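Sat 14:20. Reprocessing the chain from the morning session after the first attempt stalled halfway. Input below, unchanged.
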Amino acid sequence: MHHARAAAGNAVVAEEAGGVLRRALSGEVALERLLIKAAAGAGKSFVLRKLVVEAVEYPDCRRVGVVAFTNKQIHPLAASLGGLLGEDRVCLFVSGRRREEVPEQTSSRVTLATTAAEVPSECRVVVSTAHRLGAAGELDRLGEHVGAGHNGQAVFDVLFVDEAWQLPHHLFDRVAPAAPVAVGVGDVGQLPPLEAGQNPWRGDAGFNPYRAWPTDSDGREGTWAVELPAVWRPAAGHLDLWRAFYPQWSELDCVAAPGDRRLVVDGLSGEAGAVWRQVGTGVPTLLEVAGLPEPEAADVDPPLLGAVESLLDALLAAGFVLEQAEYDTEGSPTGNTLTSRPGDGAGEPLVAILATRNQAVDDAADLAERLRRKYSLAETEIVASTVDSWQGQTNRLTVAIHPLSGASRLDEFNSAFGRLAVTCTRATHGLLLLTRPGIDELLDQAPARPGTPFGEPGTRQLPRQTHRRILETFARGTLTVEER
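Finished this time. Tokens:
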């Protein structure tokens, strides 16, 4: 299903979640946690905002809290809630040291507070990081100042957690007493909190305070969990890849239909033309590059980045255009086609170059700077980033070094589910992964490793069978570089 038929699935789930939350707030059902699982690009922020607004309007809810892991996550969230509810009803609660970092477009839409005493008592929504709200004594000070919620004891009646699978248990435990009900919304396939190695905590073998907080709640009494069945971000050709990352889900559809996203490049011939025409189909593409000089290390590979630069240089020289069908809020095409091309300088990055290690990204950043200078592009049009830092971001074309490129074995870093998932799920138009030859042989010969697709509970590395399932969704090609 595509377009409005696909998007309707998320609307149904959001409506169902709202009904369950209302019954929990009124005491009709005994629930402590609602978990709304989303694939990358499912529109979870829209669902979160909808549930927050509905909770605020519900008679059995006086005040809600909204937390996330980082400040860069809460700033746009607070701004959007302030736009929906009004600045007097939404308070952004930040550290005094971080006040100057709040963008003007956020501060103009909310009430800003740096201490509990500055939070208005009539405020209905408090947005903060888990670090700030969970600071020692902060919930007590806030409760003394604004009073309890409708429940009569906790400050909030419900605590919403954005990007819930990114928040480690030990940070959530500090804010959990803030409300009798917690609602976690997030992508279960993103990079989780850092593991602390083998579990050193006695007692519950499945518990680790450095693990994402929702992961030991599934199936427990007091938990209601549901999945959003549609994704808005990917091109239709990426859907098999998305499904490979979420194989247990009963349903996953794409709002974009075949032909809705296009990479248009005329006059580009030869090997580069063949590569970019394939990427333009929307089907994810894996290009093995042979004949290169030896790399510095498996994940620090200037010769392979040289192949990236050559391909991007050819694409930019040809003057490409990205086209995208416009949708209304329900996922139906409006009939308009949105276009973006090098030199526009606005919106999401045209190209994101992703790698795993900082040194490789330093080299990629130099590459991006050379191309921006050569083609007079804005700094945001071609960007380079580590995969970990690009989590939560969106771009039109992704060109990335496969985390297993040149590896001799699967280890905890290069085979991490979240790292590969983030690499593969940022793009709206096209995905090109480059690797040195040998990835199939690696997966044939590497010793099997433990782990589940989501790595929870237990180790987070991908078993080789899961790597194979993901690779099977890619178009494959080989480019042989001749020494000059």
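The first strand starts at residue 33 and ends at 38.
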